[in-house]
Amino acid sequence: MSENRPTRRDLMKPVQLLGFAFGAAAFGGVIALVSMGFFQDLSDDQRMHVVIVSLVVAGIAFIATLVIIALLMLAVDPAQVTKPVDHGVLLPEPGDDDASDAEASDGPRA
After folding, report:
1. Residue 24 and residue 62 in contact, taking contact as beta carbons nearer than 8 Å
2. What is the DSSP string of 37-103?
3. What is the pLDDT of residue 1?
């Protein structure tokens, strides 16, 4: 059954991360278009202004998403990239909480 678990390397493929960033940029651009009234009666100059602003918003969303994902990937130890993922990346290993429970049950230290 452990053969079906994805490794961290599988979860961090660059094409998927770029696709996620592009999706966030497209979402931000469409929201900017709709909120600025691109689909209403506007003059050509106003439409051009709305398109430029939405492209700027999309670019900012794309770059911000890439930077945030890159910073989150720094939290993963490179030595553990090939290990299968059973739990959240930043959560302690299942066996680690047993040791901390034993230390807590020893009682107060003098």
Report:
1. yes
2. TTTSS--HHHHHHHHHHHHHHHHHHHHHHHHHHHHHHTTS-GGGTTSBP-S-TTSPPTTHHHHHHHH
3. 47
